[in-house]
Amino acid sequence: MHKTSPRRPASSETLATAHRSRANEVYEQLKRDIADFRLVPGDRFTEHELCARLEVSRTPVRQALFRLQQEGLVEVMFRSGWRVLPFDFDKFDQLYDLRMVLETTAVQRLCQQDVGTAETLLQELKDRWLVPVAERSNDPTQVAAWDEAFHETLVRAAGNAELARVHHEVTERIRIIRRLDFLKQMRIDATYEEHAKILRAILARKADRADLLLRSHIQASQVEVRKITLHQVYLAQQVAPPA
Question: What are 167-212's pLDDT values in tens digits?
Fold first, then answer.
């Protein structure tokens, strides 16, 4: 009779890898919950509640929360769990200033380089943003994602990988506040119009005009950020995509 060999216990290295993997999954899920307003500033929760909802053990939940704490998204409350932090508008202003430097630098480079090197990326943007009004999207969540992609694609098209990496990190950190900008139809319409003008200037290799248009576009968004109210946050929560 064939005997089954006893199963070897998982090594400590294997268990550690599994914990890191689950912690990453929990981190990404919680970050999406915050960015999509399923969790809003001021919301409180416990590690036990997260473990039950996400069906994971406490270790990966705690590791994920510590990462989010380092990024300034949540804070631990003495004997009362965790809280999603209120918006830090001064920090957002600084990040928008950094975004301005990165994107205008990228667009200047893009206007000076050979057209062919970024042709595919720019064509993707033309197909999405240079469309008739009747073909535009009015979905706030979709337009917000497309807006991020527009700006990240411009930076990537400039061909500097480190510039693109830092810009992506800034994009991640301002996502939560930036998405609130698209709850108003007028801001969606303005985004289509402004993106189209920026793109046409880049395609025409008019660096100074592209720079001016991009600066104006980012500054307008930065001004809107300062107008955000708690009411807008809860409106965003009502249209948040399901988990």
Answer: 999 998 898 888 888 888 999 999 999 999 999 999 999 999 999 9
DSSP SS3 for 205: coil
Same domain, 190 and 216: yes
The single-letter code of the amino acid at 133 is V
The whole-angstrom distance between residue 219's C-alpha and the CA centroid of its chain comes to 18
End-to-end Cα, the chain, rounded Å: 50
User: What does the block give as tokens for 105?
Assistant: 């630098």
The verdict on 76 and 116 lying in the same domain is no
Query: Domain check: are 205 and 103 in the same one?
Result: yes
Can you give the residue range of the structural domain that contains 143?
Answer: 89-238
Closest CA to 157 of 94, 85, 108: 108
- Distance of alpha carbon 214 from alpha carbon 101, whole angstroms: 11
* Digit-coded pLDDT (tens) for 106-163: 999 999 887 676 888 999 999 999 999 999 999 988 999 999 999 999 999 999 999 9
As for how many domains the chain has, the answer is 2
CA distance 18 to 219: 44
Q: What is the pTM of this model?
A: 0.78
C-alpha to C-alpha distance for 86 and 200, rounded to whole angstroms: 38
Question: Residues 171, 233, 28, 68: is their CA dihedral positive or negative?
Answer: positive
